[in-house]
Amino acid sequence: MNEPVLEIRNLNVDYGLGDQAVHAVRDVNLTLHRGEVLGLAGESGSGKSTLAYGLTRLLAPPGVITGGEVIYHPEKADPYDVLALSDNNLRKFRWAETAIVFQGAMNSLNPVHKISTQLNDVLQAHEPKMSAHSRNARCREMLKLVGISADRMDAYPHQLSGGMRQRVMIGMALILQPQVVIMDEPTTALDVVMQRQILGQLIELRERLGFSVIFITHDLSLLVEFSNRIAIMYGGRIVEEAPAAALYRDSLHPYSAGLLGSFPALRGPRRELSGIPGSPPDLKGMPSGCSFHPRCPKAFDPCSEHIPVLGRPDTTDGSTRTVACHLHPAQVPAGVSSPGER
Amino acid sequence: MTSLQDAEAPAGEVVLEAEGLTKHFPVRRGLRDLFDRRSRAAVHAVDDVHLILRRGKVTALVGESGSGKSTVARLLAQLYPRTDGDIRLHGESTRVKGGRNFRRYAARVQMIFQDPFASLNPVHTIRYHLTRALKIHHNGGSNAAELEDALHNLMSRVSMTPPERYLDKFPHELSGGQRQRVAIARALGADPEALLADEPVSMLDVSIRLGVLNLLRDLKERLNLAILYITHDIASARYFADETMVMYAGRMVEGGDSETVTQSPAHPYTRLLIDSAPDPDRLHGELEPDTRDRGNGEPPSLINPPSGCRFHPRCPMAGPRCETELPVRLEIGDKPGHWAACWLYDAQGVGK
Fold this sequence. Notes:
The complex is a heterodimer of chains A (342) and B (352).
Chain A: E1 4-15, E2 22-33, E3 37-41, H1 48-55, E4 63-72, E5 80-81, H2 87-93, E6 98-101, H3 115-126, H4 132-145, H5 162-174, E7 180-184, H6 192-209, E8 212-217, H7 220-226, E9 229-234, E10 237-243, H8 244-249, H9 254-260, E11 311-312, E12 322-323, E13 332-333
Parallel strand pairs in A: 3-8, 3-9, 6-7, 7-8
Antiparallel strand pairs in A: 1-2, 1-4, 4-5, 9-10, 10-12, 11-13
Helix pairs in contact in A: 5-6
Chain B: H1 4-8, E1 14-27, H2 31-35, E2 41-54, E3 58-62, H3 69-76, E4 84-89, E5 92-93, H4 99-106, E6 109-112, H5 126-136, H6 144-157, H7 163-167, H8 176-188, E7 194-198, H9 206-223, E8 226-231, H10 234-240, E9 243-248, E10 251-257, H11 258-263, H12 268-276, H13 320-324, E11 330-331, E12 339-340
Helix pairs in contact in B: 5-6, 5-8, 8-9
């Protein structure tokens, strides 16, 4: 569990070049361990989707990766930097090692092709030596795994419901048995009942197949329940990272606390909630210092001047949580490898 | 704009009432169906809905997509003609089609739409949007100074202060939360008695949703408004609404005081909905076996809705009676006003 599978180091992503550039992701350090579900939460514009596209090199222009490394650890080979891969190697890396389920995945299926054709396509491209018969068998097996009966193989996407299309997308992402699956708001367009069914299935599949998941969403209450660790992004930076339960019980960054306090509870006493005052920052004109300080109820002098460093606030308790806040100054900055990592 | 007269009306007074509200959208498959009157298929979007909006109260309508909750709002706003049933404004049956009657109705019942990015015209300023609302409903006063006053009044009501900073901006210059506030201000420009809010916060960022909900609650108290709050998030209904109704596949299945409906849900569908909602306190938890979905998590087709109770194909407690007989509203008896349309609460049960 503690073996890393994907390490992101000081990743920076800009949109545009030169003075016009908007810094969408700044100095992100994040490690995904084998077999875990890492939740990435943040509001729109916080850079969470950009981070996902950046680390898979799927950014469309004007997005540019301006610095950093993404180290991928294959199961039985030496680790390598994804950002330095040649085009040919990148093609082999994508899907086979890291698959992505896109936002609005329901619309990512080609409407004029049958499900079977689209699943077959993936296999044909990545495993050209496979026979048509075994390809078909694999598609069948994959659909069964995500809970779609094999007789729907020859259906067109419009003949399936939203939830079924989402399942096909998840099956398609898993068909080459990747080590890492990135899910970018996979259930936002679905109803709660369907959402729970699909997530339950995902957790079950993860236990069976052993892949790791980066789960991107704005719904923090969902992450607390489903992920092992949670990283919270604000204004392009990670502001807090902690095990899910620890973050829920005792969040250190005021933004995490505000976000947790923005969800009315279904159980327990009814209390007055206030959300977070103000509105999310504009990436074109970021506030100085900590980008959260104009909205922060606990802001004090250094907040508007110095950017807080993401790091472990307390070295004594041996936990792995990190936070970027002047209230909890970092003792061990993240990114500087701690003992145990390479 | 004065709402003196409104503010004096007693809280709890019935403003808008729907009885047996029904809407079927005809489905035309081909040219031949145009001439063949016998076999007209229809989407049974809303069937037999009873709803009462009271002054100073928020009524929530909770349901999944496709359950017909938005159609109910549009029927109440008279944007769609209804197939059957009655809508009563202050006890008076109303059916308006457009023109002057519609404007008179709209002055009293206003709607707020889901997407503030689409409901404001991108080529006009905030001032234009609000001025139009004020003028159409004759709340703009008789001269420029009075109009300016009314505009400032509206903006400060939705806590967009100072008004000068926002009035001459275009919608794209505002954030989502601010745009939704403008949309609310525009609805208030008509000085309405009832607001129909169709998922007013679901397109907004998580951290500002509560700000908008708290604003609506504040307005409800200050202006004594009746609010219909449509949502798919039952937790926010518990937070914001006094009364909660649950819809499934075009029918109301449960209703009552929000706290009762969310804390001791009676209908199996409401239980499924509540158990499916994300709950941070249940870490990697599993659902209770008796609230499991028997189906595949999908609502039925509304062209040929299931016979009897529309939830029976998915219901874990369903019996033979559920397949044939349409359940009526039955009192649960734990709290006054708590009802469910489910045979489980009938003396004869679901049948063997």
